[in-house]
Amino acid sequence: MLSTTNFSLLATIFLVLTFLFPSEGQLSATFYSSTCPNVTTIVSNAVQQALQSDSRVGASLTRLHFHDCFVNGCDASILLDQGGNITQSEKNAAANFNSARGFDVVDTIKNSLESSCPGIVSCADILALAAESSVSLSGGPSWNVLLGRRDGLTANQAGANSSLPTPFESLSNVASKFSAVGLDTTDLVALSGAHTFGRAQCQFFSQRLFNFSGTGSPDPTLNSTYLATLQQNCPQNGNGSTLNNLDPSTPDSFDNNYFTNLLINQGLLQTDQELFSTNGSSTISIVNNFANNQTAFFEAFAQSMINMGNISPLTGSQGEIRTDCKKVNGS
Asked: Which residues make up each annotated binding site?
């Protein structure tokens, strides 16, 4: 039988070893500290450069990370083009086709990293780092991005079609999709707050403007003044790809205005407004908290991004480090 002293000693040794030699499945903020120490600066500089010519690219890059992690985990599968063994690209899934963007910035970052530290930094980690840079450079929180993901060898278009939330779903459906990848209600509300910057095409919310759910009337949870503006921007039978600010108040800044907008029925997407307008939902109190306390939102958002970045990463010897983010090595 172990004495208490011996047991404590063994427990201490185990904790020290775990810290020094993390298991294969664990990501670490210092993963590249010796192999590519400037990785964060290289990514941040590239994102800053891209933002100067395209104010919405920060939101686009953040969305890429989200759309990657929800399908096969955070493995950069969303970046793979069709060709070779990739018979169906996730880029052509309903939620991504003619909508997901920022791929050129990812390629620019990858080229810079291949020059500085060839074969070291994964495309999956680039997506995680680019999302953090996009948020912090737009006025939002910064956080220590956990790293060490490797890149997947396959894409999953069918999974993208079934796993990614759509703007037309009920809150319970969206919550189920978050729960399926281990994210809870706070994560759902916090990550929805990424709609504080960026744009959405008319086709993703026009069902709210004229004939909501077959009623012949607009969505009753839409502020009437806001509705009139949106009807002007997105007329019936108009151009479905016309862009609209997700946050009409500060469209390119990362702040908590997304949540204050929900309080006055100015959520753009059905799935935005449902967070506040679904009777009895546990999301309502979280929306209220974030609307009244930007610090609480920023802290929750940073933690939820870390949680999302932990969805089923490939680590150790799994997958590969792609040389070109658009295709698996050797294809």
From this structure: 68, 71, 73, 75, 77, 90, 165, 195-196, 247, 250, 255
